[in-house]
Automatic annotation (TrEMBL):
Family statement drawn from the similarity comment of this UniProt entry: Belongs to the asparaginase 1 family.
SUPFAM superfamilies: Glutaminase/Asparaginase
One Pfam family, short name: Asparaginase
EC number assigned by the record: 3.5.1.1
UniProt keyword Hydrolase, yes or no: yes
Superkingdom to which the source organism belongs: Bacteria
PANTHER family (UniProt xref): 60 KDA LYSOPHOSPHOLIPASE, L-ASPARAGINASE
Organism expressing this protein natively: Kushneria phosphatilytica
Keyword Phosphoprotein: no
Protein name, as recorded: asparaginase
Top EC category: hydrolase
InterPro entries: Asp/glu_Ase-like_sf, Asparaginase/glutaminase-like, Asparaginase/glutaminase_AS1, Asparaginase/glutaminase_AS2, Asparaginase_C, L-asparaginase_C, L-asparaginase_I, L-asparaginase_N
Length: 336
């Protein structure tokens, strides 16, 4: 039977009601085991053995920062030889950002890393927490699953394609541009396809920790009427990377001054990645003249990447102290 390490980092799943709303709770392992004991005997017996590493300072996901992503990755790597799979329990608001970052940091781990959480506290009436725990444990024990994935609401999603899709629903995450990896069917976790990251050589290069110097990366969503003057204020000389969310398949305002600003930033070493504001579909930057202009300005085609994936990819590469040219070459997830 596989051994799993469950890392409780914080989030709603472990909270208790308090006088001012939900507050961080503790003793998560004991509480989780109590909830799992309520499962039918056959399903309980199917669960793998697990240990629990509980953060003493639970992270509210709205306060999560890149250094937390690095900390989680280093905790996984510290225990990589003692466990067959890992579960990261996390608050839902920025869960997709953490899952995407872990995808890059743990690409060579060769074991399943399942990120999960809940929309409601573990002991709440009709909570989705116990079901998500069972789901995550089931997939973390799969020998035919490698890489980072999100287990939530009866579904398994790729870590670099998942997005929070609903503020309250139990099925709160979706992958707009990728098929489901698996689902909970007939009281067991079923894989639809075997997903293995391209790099699976046993080598992992996590972000530095604890001495984290977070690269200056920004996210800019275009709006009708954006001007070069406003863009120049947002794209300061200290910005090392920019996720630029353009319209449709690769359109921006037909303004030479905006293109010139993007070109100047790119030439000084700023990595600018274009993705679409549309949740579904991919960029086709050669379809329109403005798309060609973006490419000529040195903007990287982010294809169908989510904002979370593109942003965390930039943070990851820049944290490795690589040259802008090497970061550019390695940006595509296929080179991860």
């Amino acid at each position: 039977m596989n051994r799993i390490l469950m890392i409780y980092t914080g989030g709603t799943i472990g909270m208790y009601p308090g006088p001012r709303g939900l507050e961080p709770g503790h003793d998560f392992e004991q509480r989780a085991r109590q909830q799992l004991q309520r499962l039918p005997s056959k399903r309980l017996e199917a669960l793998p053995d697990f240990d629990c590493l509980e953060y003493n300072d639970p992270i509210d996901s709205s306060n999560a920062r890149p250094e937390h992503w690095a900390r989680i990755a280093h905790d996984v790597l510290e225990h990589r030889h003692s466990y067959d799979g890992f579960i990261i329990l996390h608050g839902t608001d920025t869960l997709a950002w953490t899952a995407a970052s872990l995808t890059w940091q743990l690409s060579g781990l060769g074991k399943p890393v399942i990120v999960s959480g809940a929309q409601h506290p573990l002991e709440a009436e009709q909570s989705d927490g116990p079901a998500n725990l069972e789901l995550a444990l089931g997939f973390a024990a799969r020998n035919d699953l490698v890489g980072v994935a999100v287990a939530f609401g009866g579904q398994l999603l790729r870590g670099d394609t998942a997005r929070k899709w609903d503020t309250h629903a139990h099925r709160g995450f979706a992958s707009p541009n990728a098929a489901l990896l698996g689902e909970w069917l007939q009281d067991s976790p079923q894989l639809h396809e075997v997903f293995s990251p391209s790099a699976n050589d046993g080598e992992c290069t996590p972000m530095p920790y604890p001495a984290v110097v977070t690269p200056h990366v920004a996210r800019l969503v275009l709006w009708p009427g954006i001007s070069a003057e406003i863009l120049s204020r947002l794209l300061g000389d200290d910005i090392q990377g920019l996720v630029l969310e353009v319209w449709g398949s690769g359109n921006i305002p037909e303004d030479p001054a905006i293109i010139n600003l993007l070109r100047q930033a790119s030439e000084r070493g700023c990595l600018i990645v274009a993705i679409s504001q549309c949740p579904h579909g991919t960029l086709q930057m050669t379809n329109y003249a403005t798309g060609h202009a973006l490419l000529s300005a040195g903007v990287i085609n982010g294809a169908d990447m989510t904002p979370e994936a593109a942003f965390t990819r930039l943070i990851y590469l820049l944290s490795q102290q690589l040259s802008p040219e090497k970061c550019r070459r390695q940006f595509s997830p296929s080179s991860a």
